[in-house]
Amino acid sequence: MKKLRDLWRAATLMEKLTLILSPLYVLTPIDFIPEAIFGIFGLFDDATAIGMFVWTIRNIQKRLDSELNPQSRDIKKKQVPNKLIP
Fold this sequence. Notes:
Layout: H1 2-10, H2 13-27, H3 35-38, H4 44-68, H5 70-79
């Protein structure tokens, strides 16, 4: 429960809207691409909403991890080769 609360507190307004509206869109019977007409292709909009939900949670979690552990951010920077410096 604490982890969910931390994720919610760290989320921006747009991320909070995504976390609320994505599951609501999947659960509502109204779709941009209805399954009754387009068959299997009608599931793409639902899959996109689920993907946005998961992507948003992962981004918030990455941001929290980098804020809590600044050393890991420095290590990641050192691992990236800089091709501009010979």
